[in-house]
Each structure stands twice: as C-alpha cells, then as structure tokens.
Amino acid sequence: MPAGLHPQPNAPAALLLQETTKTYGDKVTALDHVSLHVPHGSFLAVMGPSGSGKSTLLHCAAGLDTPTSGQVFIDGTEISKLSETKRTKLRRDRIGFIFQSYNLLPSLTVEENITLPLRLARSAPDRAWLDNVIERVGLSPLVDRRPDELSGGQQQRAAIARALVAQPDVVFADEPTGALDLDTAVDVLTLLRDLVDDLGQTVVMVTHDPNAAAWAHGTVVMADGRIREYLARPTANELAASLTHLRRA
Asked: How far apart are CA 60 and CA 180, in angstroms?
C-alpha cells in the first residue's frame, strides 16, 4: 500500500489523489507524487512541519490550485483537468471551506453570511437543511446578529455552517481552531467530528496541532512534499512524537 493511502482503498472516495505533484519553477517541489484516498463520511487530518506540503495538498485537493502532474478527484469527478470556469463552479457547488480567519462579511447577518454561497450561485436554500445546519452549529438564536456581535467560536460556527449549506461532497478546513482558545477549539472540533459521525460529512483538516488532529479518524503526516505516515485514530502524544521524529530526521 503506497504511503499515505487510506487503509480502505476499496471504499467509495469523496477525495482521491493519484500521484499528484506540484512544482514551482525548476527547483521547488511542494508535492511529490502524493496518493491519498479519503472515503465518504470520514474525518482526515493532515499534519507536518512548516514547508511539508500540507497547505499545497489542501489547495490542489480543493481545486484552488492546479497540480503539475497527477490526478485529483472529488466524488469521482476529475477536477485537475477542468477549466478554471468549471473548477470554480465545482468549488462553489460541491466543496466547502472553513478558514482560520472565518472570512465572514461584517455587513451581513449570520444567516446572510451562511447563505452567501447559495446567493452567489443564484440558488435558493433548502430551508429544512438550512435550519438543520444552523441548529446543529448552535446559532439558531443568533441568526440576525452581525459577526462583530459574536465570539470567535460563534464566528467559526457560522463559517462551518456556511461550508455546509450547499451540502458539499467534501469540507476542507485550514487550521480551523488556530485563532481559538482551548475550550472553544474543543467545542469546534467536537462539532466537526459530530458532523462526520452523525451526518456522514467528509472533512479534510490541515492543522499543526496534534491535539486538534487527534479528533480525526486518521492523520497523514507529511514532510518534504510527501506523505510519510498514516496513523489511524492516533493520540495527540503519538502525533507529537511522529512530528518530533520527522524534525530530527
């Protein structure tokens, strides 16, 4: 089994990378023939030292960047060969994003921020699903407030709801707890895990924090643009030890 390939290679893939490589110029290889299989309804964390390639992996996997070679599939659709217009539409319709900085618009209410991707796509929200998502993230009493009236944790919950509103195939989370205190981070990670376990959502989370990664079903550890290790249900201590070993190596 290639390094980093999920141990359920025959399960239907929400996200699949095959020999994906990304180079910049003649000398910098940010991703080096990475293969990765993420089944539907799973929670995968991606860790690694600075410069390991984890952010490049996220960008290529989410269609924000185009790999130099190899293939990327979202629920069976190869996105690495799509035109920019088609890739933009796929990101809007089938991919959700959660960022460390929330990226909420201050002039919009919570509900307007959550439904913004649908309005940009000129699509009406599924009201039952929208209400379910808002209730699931605990923001039902706050839908008419603006972001500056929310705590950091509440803003991140609004960002999570926005990522879910179009019922995407995959949600990508880039350091979603990096700006939160410990207790609030635990609340957000609990929510992400519940979304996977209860709703069957697929989440791929990039993080530098072993404590955050330990909430996932599994973690890939990267170094020098390659997946060096896959750990199933690791503890935070096991992940910290893996990173320490990589830094020493």
From this structure: 26
